[in-house]
Amino acid sequence: MSYQSANPLSEEFELTLSRPLTAYWLAIVRVLTGWWFFHAGVTKLIEDGLAFSYAPMYLKGMTGTALGPIPVLMGEYLGPFLQAGVPLGETLIGLGLMVGALTRLASFFGAFFMVLFWIGNAGFGHGLVNSDLMGLLLFVTMMVLATGRYFGLDAIIEKTRFVQQNPKLRYLLG
């Protein structure tokens, strides 16, 4: 990072991600976050298979929350989808992040999960900032900085002829 030392309030700001230490750090953050989600998903799959009944049960019990009847209805009508979707989603998101493939797409869905967890867990004993919000920030950071390009498969996938011919696909990679 650099800024004008004569005027630190200047609007000119540069964030350089080309340093080797930055690339290593972003890859480490991506892999560790991927392991976190992969482990959570695989553990649920081993214990419950595709019948992770805690998700719909938890949502059905959220009566009287700030979200009103929305989580209760979700638990009631989306139960079978949630039972399979949570463990599979966590596993696939984690796997994608660990190998660095479709990182932006995986990070988007990871951020989506973390928003739901943040609202659903509602452990705001220390204010709005909790571990679910920190997870959300990790996923958004990986999405914005395209961390799959640093020691991940996205760096290889971006060079394929198919992606070169369809440049909009690069927005899913990173």
Automatic annotation (TrEMBL):
> Where is it chiefly localized?
membrane
Q: How does it sit in the membrane?
A: Multi-pass membrane protein
- A Pfam family per the record: DoxX
Protein name from the UniProt record: DoxX family protein
What are the TM regions of this chain, as residue ranges? Answer: 21-38, 58-79, 91-121, 133-152
Q: Organism's domain of life?
A: Archaea
GO CC annotation terms, alphabetical: plasma membrane
Question: Keyword annotations for this protein?
Answer: Cell membrane, Membrane, Transmembrane, Transmembrane helix
Enumerate the subcellular locations listed in this protein's record, separating them with semicolons: Cell membrane
